[in-house]
Amino acid sequence: MSDGCGAPVQTATLPANIDPGKETVLIGKVYASGAPAAGAFVRLLDSSGEFTAEVVASPEGDFRFFAAPGDWTIRALHRAGNGETTVSATGPGLHPVELAVG
């Protein structure tokens, strides 16, 4: 199932077939004024700033990306504003990210 843009539905829980011990997962939430930023466009950029992927945040502001280990930038675009943060995913596992827009 997708949200209409081809991106998978975003939730706080991983699909049952995903083993976070083998996958590198960037998982997080987007906030606007302290509340979840539903519908934010969340973009994943590689260490050189190149666009890699985009998802739409869930109604609870959740998003996730499956990525290779390394340094990543996550950028969110929302009607309340934009925000950006970096994350260093050193290997397999869940790498939590919180991102504020405004």
Outline:
By secondary structure, the chain is mostly beta strands.
Describe the overall structure:
With 102 residues, the protein is mainly β. It has a single domain (24-101), classed as Carboxypeptidase-like, regulatory domain (Immunoglobulin-like, Sandwich). 0% of the residues lie in helices and 54% in strands. The chain has no helices and eight strands. The chain has strands at residues 24-32, 35-36, 41-45, 51-56, 62-67, 70-78, 81-89, 93-101. The strands form two sheets. Strands 1, 2, 5 and 8 form a four-stranded mixed beta sheet that branches. A four-stranded antiparallel beta sheet has the order 4-3-6-7, with no helix packed on it. It comes from Solihabitans fulvus.
Q: Could you name the key traits of this structure?
A:
single chain; 102 residues; mainly beta; Immunoglobulin-like; four-stranded antiparallel beta sheet; globular
Q: Using the 3D structure, state the CATH architecture.
A: Sandwich
Work out the count of structural domains: 1
Estimate the global geometry from the Cα principal axes: globular
Number of helices: 0
Annotation, overall tally of beta strands: 8
Q: Extract low-pLDDT stretches.
A: none
CATH superfamily: Carboxypeptidase-like, regulatory domain
Strand content: over 45%
What is the CATH level 1 assignment?
Mainly Beta
Radius of gyration of CA atoms, rounded to a whole number = 13 Å
Protein name: DUF1416 domain-containing protein
Organism: Solihabitans fulvus
InterPro entries: DUF1416
